[in-house]
Write a structure and sequence with these properties.
disordered C terminus, about 300 residues, 7 strands, 9 helices, Rossmann fold
Length: about 300
């Protein structure tokens, strides 16, 4: 059921939702809402979060195992999959752009396995944590004012293997959505922005990066709303009758440079937060020079 406010749609029949990467950072923001709405299958390569705390209900599952066949049973009776799983090469950051082809290839293999299991076991919809890095080649053109905004219909272009892997997720997802393998698997790819608080103290000497993070900001409650609507609201079909959508994951930011027009119209996404309002005092001090820069990030 689509609503026009930022409220989550009313839950109908309780869905069974499988989450990969269930002990990770993004999952930690989603699980409080998911636990209220869904019957969950929580899978990851560990059962504890980054701080070593157990995640209730998490089960060990390795989608890169030589024989992943035993994992198939987890998909029985599942209505939707939320694929957050990510293999991080040793010594590398999650979103670091210094990864090689071979270091990112396992993540493409993992996505393929998740999509195939979903298709083969009658799952209706898959929601994937893609990334804004699928289109980060465009960003310098934005800073130079050669273009005004980037939207899902712009060609995905990246200049690094991390972004390439996200583009590969999307290309694989299109094949599954268009019916190439026997039926159309509904597919939502979320190009997530910056799902974290913006600490102005980290950007005192980097105002351009600060403006970028303000534009990409995604609050926890807006992330929750976006993913819940991506799971529940439809139809997703485009003008070619393919149930495939790419949505940018950002809040209602004044400095936004990615378009969320289609997320608003297709699933009724109505983000409630704006970094310009939330961080108004920090913005005034850092970008206008008003006040004491030494106090950046200490007031909210």
């Amino acid at each position: 059921m689509m609503t026009t406010s930022g409220r989550l749609p009313e839950a109908s029949a309780r869905r069974r939702v499988l989450v990969t990467g269930a002990t990770g950072y993004i999952a930690s923001q989603l699980l409080p809402v998911f636990r209220e709405r869904y019957d969950l299958v929580l899978l990851d390569v560990r059962t504890t979060d980054a701080g070593g705390q157990p995640v209730a209900g998490a089960q060990v599952a390795d989608f890169l195992a030589e024989d992943p066949t035993p994992l198939a049973g987890h998909f029985e009776g599942v209505d939707a999959v939320v694929h957050l799983g990510y293999w991080r090469p040793p010594g590398k950051t999650v979103t670091g752009q210094d990864k090689s082809y071979l270091e990112e290839r396992p993540n493409v293999d993992m996505a393929e396995r998740v999509f195939r299991f979903a298709l083969d076991h009658g799952v209706r919809r898959v929601v994937v944590a893609s990334s804004n890095h699928a289109a980060d080649w465009w960003e310098p053109l934005l800073h130079e004012r050669r273009i005004d905004a980037i939207g899902p219909r712009d060609l995905p272009r990246s200049d690094n293997y991390y972004g390439w892997a996200k583009i590969a997720y999307e290309a694989l997802g299109w094949m599954y959505a268009c019916g190439a393998f026997g039926r159309k698997l509904e597919m939502v790819q979320l190009r997530i922005g910056a799902p974290r608080e913006v600490d102005a103290a980290e950007f005192v000497d980097r105002p351009a990066q600060y403006k970028r993070d303000l534009g990409a900001y995604l609050s926890a409650r807006d992330l929750q709303q976006l993913v819940v609507r991506s799971i529940e609201v439809g139809p997703l079909e485009d003008e070619w009758e393919v149930p495939f959508q790419i949505f940018y994951g950002i809040s209602n930011n004044t400095r936004a440079f990615w378009s969320i027009t289609n997320a608003r119209s297709v699933i009724g996404y109505a983000p409630e937060d704006d970094s310009e309002v939330k961080y108004a005092d920090d913005i005034r001090r850092l970008l206008t020079g008003a006040g004491d820069r030494g106090r950046l990030g200490t007031e909210r």
